[in-house]
Amino acid sequence: MAIRLLDTLLKLQLLIIAGTLLFRGVSYSLECYACDSAEDPECATRPGQQLEVEECSGATDLCVTSITAGLTRRGCLGRLYPNGYCAAPCDSCNTSLCNRHVFPTDRLRCYQCSGSTCIDVANRPELLLPCPVYNEDDRCYTNILHLSNTMRGCEHTNLPDTCPHVCLKCNYNGCNSELTVTESRCLQCTHMRLSPNPDCLREQALINDDETVQCALTNETVTQCVNKVMLGHREQCYTHLNTQTEVLQRGCSTTMGFFPTGELTQCYGDYCNAQCQDIACGTCNSTSNPNCRTGINLSTEKCAAGTVACYACEQVVFLFHSISNLCLNMYIPPDTFLRRGCADADFIPATDQGETCQLCRSSDNCNRYSVRSCYRCNSQEQDDDDCAEMNLPSAMTISNCTDPMELCVSTVISRLNLIYTVRGCASQVPECSANDPYCVKCNGSLCNNIPTQWAMEKIEQSNIHLLDSPKQQKQRWAALTLLKYLWPDP
Ligand SMILES: *[C@@H]1O[C@H](CO)[C@@H](O)[C@H](O)[C@H]1NC(C)=O
Ligand SMILES: *[C@@H]1O[C@H](CO)[C@@H](O)[C@H](O)[C@H]1NC(C)=O
Ligand SMILES: *[C@@H]1O[C@H](CO)[C@@H](O)[C@H](O)[C@H]1NC(C)=O
Ligand SMILES: *[C@@H]1O[C@H](CO)[C@@H](O)[C@H](O)[C@H]1NC(C)=O
Ligand SMILES: *[C@@H]1O[C@H](CO)[C@@H](O)[C@H](O)[C@H]1NC(C)=O
Ligand SMILES: *[C@@H]1O[C@H](CO)[C@@H](O)[C@H](O)[C@H]1NC(C)=O
């Protein structure tokens, strides 16, 4: 018997030639695939690929595929079983190269692989193969070795010693396909007093793309970490507050440090450690508490859960004097009302009543600082041509003063042939000194919005016929007074 190794193409050609010879009625000899899975597992799993072919000696021979003790053998019946008896399971057929199929047809198919590429076999159909060793009651197994190594195969072919300790077994084709290492994500950040990270404490987040805002951290502003988890294990996200040092940490439990004290909360699920840290705010108002303005020794209040920020709001309160008061050109400093507290769901800034608010969320009691802000402009600068008239204060630049008690100022500066208005926090406008006759100071946020009087005069001259009320006449009188100052009578 001659065994020849032929490549597939040659085999095909042979088939065609054999077919042609048969058609012409010329005798031919039967050819069969010949192999033993003990030497080449592909004999069992991928027949018809690169297997050897043998020519049978007898004209009445058959090609067979048989299973003995789990091993698969293919070849001519006459060679494999000289007595002509092939015990079941055995398949025989009588045309050339007909023994090329997986046998038995219900031979179990399992994912067979090992290493890191074996962790996720969802899109790896090439790893799903018939089991090399046949057993009627075979099962597929998955052996999770560690985070970067998984082994899959057939129970009767190569079950590792470590099974069944960390092995999953199942009994239908392709059943050992479970993802063995999964990833879960957590927010990861640290906030500490010397290196503040307000986004790690609390944040206003849009929920589900609709308009609802709630206090929660998001992975858009906070970095994240990944817990790698072996099948059958679960890892958590954590939030830890060291109540002594006030260091707040969030992260993945797989990389969590040891926290003997403090407040530790843990949770399951992607980004589950996104809860806002509670905030406490200084709470007071300038009417009932003289310390409210300085921010010293404020009483603090724990805000309602989900509060994002603390507020400090200031409102200019004008003292209304009777119109008969002839001292209208005398500056009456407006008083201010200041309040501080939790910017919770009940907080509404009275913007329509001229209240200006500043919000902060960087730490407990962060609203104890300055709330003083003033209009900042210079009518000589190109973008500030409304600085004198203040027709549109809402469009004006606002400057935060360095001190909560700082005054807001406005003055008219006359230099060479230029006359222009400058406004700002007192420290920003050094021209506005005690001997500056045009310096106007006021005690409150954004109170430096009174139009420069020479501008008023210009308006009044063009609208002189409209000026009939006593109040407007008095305003005009006041304006002319200032004008005299600016342009003394020759
Ligand atoms: C081959 O087997 C089929 C049935 O499996 C039979 O009908 C046929 O006669 C056989 N041919 C030869 C040449 O023995
Ligand atoms: C943030 O989380 C959402 C799900 O909550 C996810 O779809 C998105 O890809 C994450 N963004 C980043 C940058 O990881
Ligand atoms: C100021 O605070 C006191 C005491 O907390 C309160 O009774 C009062 O209503 C507050 N005033 C205003 C205008 O909110
Ligand atoms: C701080 O306030 C408390 C009461 O709220 C008061 O007893 C204490 O004297 C105050 N301290 C200072 C320095 O004002
Ligand atoms: C002034 O302070 C507020 C609140 O702290 C801040 O939002 C704003 O950006 C500051 N403005 C400037 C010009 O620094
Ligand atoms: C500004 O107003 C506050 C409270 O209304 C007062 O305590 C302070 O002395 C005033 N500052 C000036 C410079 O008038």
UniProtKB/TrEMBL annotation:
The gene is Dwil\GK24922. Residues 1-29 form the signal peptide. It comes from Drosophila willistoni (Fruit fly). Transmembrane segments: none annotated. The keyword Methyltransferase does not apply. This is DUF753 domain-containing protein. Keywords: Signal. Residues 31-99 form the DUF753 domain. The keyword Signal applies.
